Amino acid sequence: MITVIGTGTGAPVPDAALAGAGLVVGGRRHLDAVRLPEGAERIVLGPLAPALDAMEPYVEKDRPVVVLASGDPGFFGIVRALAERFGTERLDVRAGVSSVAAAFARAGLPWDDAVVVSAHGREPRTAVNVCRAHPKVAVLTGPGAGPAELGAALRDTGRILVVASALGDPARERVERVTPAEAADRDWGTAVSVVLSLDPERALGAVRTVAGPPARPAGWALDEADFAHRDSMITKFEVRALALARLGPRLGDLVWDVGAGSGSVAVECARLGAAAVAVEKAADGVERIRANAAAHGVDVRVVHGAAPDALADLADDPDAVFVGGGGRELPAVVTACARRARRTVVVAMAALDRVPAARKALTSSGFTCDGVLLQSSRLAPLPGDVTRLAATNPVFLLWGVRRPACTEGVAQ
Hints:
The chain has a 7-stranded mixed sheet, sandwiched between helices. Strands 3-2-4-1-5 form a 5-stranded parallel sheet. It has a 5-stranded mixed sheet with strand order 6-7-10-8-9, sandwiched between helices. Helices cover 27% and strands 25% of the residues. The two termini are 46 Å apart. It is built from 13 helices and 19 strands. Helix 12 packs parallel to helix 13 (355-364).
């Protein structure tokens, strides 16, 4: 058997768990904290593959192996790699308290409604987008994706960061609440275990039946009446339904809604779990978007400015972009969005004359392009208890999908 013992958050490893082990594997601090059985070899974990290779002869000869890991080794831990290599039937996993559970305990918060994301050895953009979209997030950190980097990316939010370092070490453990700006301006060293990103007004959360991120909404393409808007200047729900299908907003994504108007597309993307940015040039539109986001209980970052110039101030490249409205600037706006979009750009237009230029802007930027003319008629009551069909204004919807082999023009 391979006995996997979770440690490092306060629970010592009992000597009996190591008895008879021919090989003990773990981080240096874990190995230094235990007394090895007489004659046992030890391997200090660095790169995982060589350690697994070294374990192979012991497993083949049925010699006991003990692996020491931090916290709960089945939660973003070594259990996955061990199970894939040696099979679950060979594993005896003895879980400790995970760093995430310990951090929330230190913060005095429940965490059944938290989203947990790992930035360890990964690009931090997914973690940042999740922190923007959700009120309670735990981030497992790593080099280049620690409190300073998260703080720098979240400066414009009202989040509070709880930085938990050296959890379980009585002499070194520290748990600090800081603003993103404060986190960005510090050198946190290498002892950080986990960072909690909290919306102070929603950190406690409601009683939940299902753990994890909020369930996806039961429906989308909401009725126009569900949003405040001016003079019917809102993307109609038929158009919004297809736009959302092509945008594909999901947890960890960043979506721009450019020329947002009422912000209906941004709000719907946020309801589906994505981080959303709405760009709007009209001052009253900015306030309307904020009100719509608040009414639907989602976070939408609102940028007051006219595209394409306002897009230059957005540091993070989006996964998907929706471009609404239009005018003479539309080709330039679509080009600017296409240069930075990682996956797709969707453009809605009322004027036929705008379609060729928008299509050229997408294809010239390395996108395959498709589109439809959407025309719908809605049921409308008439006197006498009868119903007619009321036609809505036709809308052209184009969508461009970045060709996988084409990276030219994409900001890195």
